[in-house]
Amino acid sequence: xxxxVDGPTASGKGTIAKALAAHFALPHLxxxxxxxxxxxxxxxxxxxxxxxxxxxxxCDFPASLLDDPELRSEASGGMASRVSVHPAVRQALFExxxxxxxxxxxxxxxxxDIGTVIAPEAEVKLFVVASVPARAERxxxxxxxxxxAVALADIAADLADRDERDRTRAxxxxxxxxxxxxxxxxxxxxxxxxxxxxxIAKQKRG
Length: 206
Ligand code: C5P
What we know:
Layout: E1 2-6, H1 13-24, E2 28-30, H2 31-45, H3 52-57, H4 74-83, H5 87-101, E3 107-111, H6 114-118, E4 124-129, H7 132-145, H8 152-168, E5 181-184, H9 190-205
Parallel strand pairs: 1-3, 1-4, 2-3, 4-5
Helix pairs in contact: 1-9, 2-4, 4-8, 7-8
This protein binds cytidine-5'-monophosphate.
């Protein structure tokens, strides 16, 4: 069974995808991490994330970069969003994601274009959304727990920027697949959101 979990930043899709993977004993790939690694590698190379050649060169990042805690920062998220607009970058990361989705037994992938581009044949497609204030508040609490000093208003502005860039890009924009089930987590706690996602997956699987 392939489960595609798409949605904007801090919607809860990562938590939901991990929980679905644990519940159905499936491997999980956080595809945002791949784009974050490309963004980080551009910075390490001293390149420009808006330049397609610099961004493509960064797709050769070493596997060890995926363990870099810096990838979780807002700065890396912003860089990821900028490199992800280049079709050549998306193409370079496509096979890796597709192979993960097609492994025997299935997989859970979360990202922006899993249900539309990477695995359009997924049996279960969730599109996880939440309001900007709810997402900003969650990200703020996460950052505080990590001891990072950030202002709530800056997080909300950054989220809104990233949403806009992800939704309006020409290649693989953030959009729900026609057969995706919408899950709004604005007013749901962590456990409620996970329970709702599991119920949807079970129902879709039949
Ligand atoms: O999900 P996360 O916030 O880690 O993703 C970082 C950025 O990577 C997103 O803002 C988006 O621009 C890009 N991304 C993408 N396609 C994916 C996953 C992430 O374009 N499948």
